[in-house]
Amino acid sequence: MKQTRIRTYHNDGDTLEICETLHEKSGRWCGDFSKHDEKTRYTPNGRPWVDITCGDECPHCDAGRDGGKCSFFRREKAKDVIAVCFCEKLRVEPEKLLTQKRLE
Questions:
Q1: What's the alpha-carbon Rg for the chain, to the nearest Å?
Q2: Which of 9, 42, 50, 81 could form a disulfide with 16 if both were Cys (CB 3.0 to 4.6 A apart)?
Q3: Coil, strand or helix at 80
Q4: pLDDT for the residue 21
Q5: How far is 18 from 9, CA to CA, in rounded Å?
Q6: Residue 66: helix, strand or coil by DSSP?
Q7: pLDDT band at residue 43, thresholds of 50, 70 and 90?
Q8: Closest C-alpha to 29, from 38, 37, 19, 39
Q9: CA–CA separation, 11 vs 41, rounded Å?
Q10: How far apart are alpha carbons 35 and 13 in whole angstroms?
Q11: How far apart (Å, rounded) are the C-alpha atoms in residues 49 and 38?
Q12: H-type helices in 10-57, by residue range?
């Protein structure tokens, strides 16, 4: 039986819950970001949550191809693999987010 837990991330006024499964051989907890990968989630301040392990290159990344070292990313804990991007060019105005939610 696989061990699972819910990891709660807090960042930029938002709370994100991710299901994690214990990888038996390594003893590490691995997050299931599949729902996050389907549609970008934004904080109430209009900043996107980013899975830094997905390898997507951001045109505004200031760390070249190593997005994990981008100074725009703010993690709750140093080794987190999910962060909030504080690049103003990727920020969505909170009013636009409210309009999108109403349309869904």
A1: 15
A2: 9
A3: coil
A4: 92
A5: 8
A6: coil
A7: very high
A8: 19
A9: 12
A10: 20
A11: 12
A12: 34-38
Residue 58, Cβ density class (10 Å: 0-12 exposed, 13-18 middle, ≥19 buried): middle
Q: Considering the entire predicted model, what is its pTM?
A: 0.77
Region label for 97, one of left (φ > 0), alpha (ψ between -120 and 50) or beta (otherwise): alpha
Residue length, the chain? 104
User: Per-residue pLDDT tens for 44-100?
Assistant: 999 999 887 765 567 777 666 565 678 888 999 988 888 999 989 989 987 777 665
Domain boundaries, the chain: 4-103
Query: How many Å apart are CA 59 and CA 77, to the nearest integer?
Result: 25
Helices (H), 1-104: 34-38, 94-103
